[in-house]
Amino acid sequence: MTDSPTIREVTLRTGIPSSALRFYERRGLIAPSGRRAGKRVYGPDIYARLALIDMAKLAGFTVAEIAAVLDLSTGLPREHWQAVARPKLSELDERIAAAQRARDFLRHALECPEPDAARCPGFQAKLAAHTEALARG
């Protein structure tokens, strides 16, 4: 791999399809640094930039939200990033809490000594807790 990887090299290294890379280009998230033998090439920072995009997506940002704060020329302006990141942090905390409840629910169902997990008091308690969480929104 070179300091200026082709779109194919980026795809092979990251697993991100070339169609997604072209989509990111159209949305202003990445830009090729030029062409080599008629193929797009990217700068050496492409992998870090794609990692940032992926991390933002994992945090719940849409591609449009990422594009709104990620400036190709200046990077990630702090004031823009903070304005969008603060609300995402609470959304992420809520998703983590829900995933932990789901994990605990499944773990209990798998490890429950009762012959019918649905009749287990611990199982029922977890369902009740989730029912309350749903009612809170």
UniProtKB/TrEMBL annotation:
<protein>
    <submittedName>
        <fullName>DNA-binding transcriptional MerR regulator</fullName>
    </submittedName>
</protein>
<feature type="domain" description="HTH merR-type">
    <location>
        <begin position="6"/>
        <end position="72"/>
    </location>
</feature>
<dbReference type="Pfam" id="PF09278">
    <property type="entry name" value="MerR-DNA-bind"/>
</dbReference>
<dbReference type="InterPro" id="IPR009061">
    <property type="entry name" value="DNA-bd_dom_put_sf"/>
</dbReference>
<dbReference type="GO" id="GO:0003700">
    <property type="term" value="F:DNA-binding transcription factor activity"/>
</dbReference>
<dbReference type="InterPro" id="IPR047057">
    <property type="entry name" value="MerR_fam"/>
</dbReference>
<dbReference type="GO" id="GO:0003677">
    <property type="term" value="F:DNA binding"/>
</dbReference>
<keyword id="KW-0805">Transcription regulation</keyword>
<keyword id="KW-0804">Transcription</keyword>
<dbReference type="InterPro" id="IPR000551">
    <property type="entry name" value="MerR-type_HTH_dom"/>
</dbReference>
<dbReference type="InterPro" id="IPR015358">
    <property type="entry name" value="Tscrpt_reg_MerR_DNA-bd"/>
</dbReference>
<keyword id="KW-0238">DNA-binding</keyword>
<dbReference type="Pfam" id="PF00376">
    <property type="entry name" value="MerR"/>
</dbReference>
